Amino acid sequence: MNKQTYNVLVLCTGNSARSILGEALINHHGKGKFRAFSAGSFPTGRVNPYALKLLQELNIPIDNPRSKSWDEFAKPDAPAIDFIITVCDNAASEVCPIWPGHPLTAHRGVPDPAHIEGSDEDKMHAFRDVFMTLDARVRLFVALPVESLDRMQLHQQLKDIGKIAAN
Questions:
Q1: Using CB atoms within 10 A of its CB, is residue 94 exposed (0-12), middle (13-18) or buried (19+)?
Q2: For the range 149-153, what are the long-range contacts, defined as Cβ-Cβ under 8 Å and sequence gap of 24 or more?
């Protein structure tokens, strides 16, 4: 792979929390080398307010966040996707659309903070935990020497990053 900018699609079932955080982190840390998008197999139609609040608190921008279907990225006029990263176990096991160009895929499952019940503090704590795990993995991902690895080496590196938990 030898491109100026690599497009990354972060997938989750609802596209309301984890994939939104992943998109924001890749765009933030990718510094133009990576451009991320997010989508879901069964989008909720709304972005979780705790995800947006956390990103705002940490000064991590996200342009036009919205919960959308992964079908948008299987259309002929969609951006060519180089990497697909699933962040929930459901999306990883679902039958995905056929992606043009056969992007490399990796699974990086994290618990869904949107399902936490309790106080606002409990919910924000869950979002922060998921954020820290995603942040550690994204930092490793964007640091990969993509241009110098062959497809098999790159795929193995992606799989290895998915096994790393935040400290």
A1: middle
A2: 149/1, 151/1, 151/104
Show Cβ contacts of residue 55 under 8 Å, excluding neighbours closer than 6 positions: 21, 24, 61, 62
Q: Which two tokens stand for residue 6?
A: 């690599």
pTM, two decimals, is: 0.91
Please name the residues in contact with 119: beta carbons below 8 A apart, sequence gap of 6 or more: none
CA 131/CA 110 separation, integer angstroms? 9
Yes or no: say if 75 and 69 are a contact pair by the CB < 8 Å rule.
no
Show me where the domains of the chain are located. Answer: 6-161
CATH code given to domain 6-161: 3.40.50.2300
pLDDT at 105 (0 to 100): 83
Structure-model confidence comparison of residues 92 and 41, the more confident one: 41
Tens digits of residue pLDDT in 78-109: 999 999 998 886 654 555 566 667 788 888 78
Active site residues: 12, 88, 96
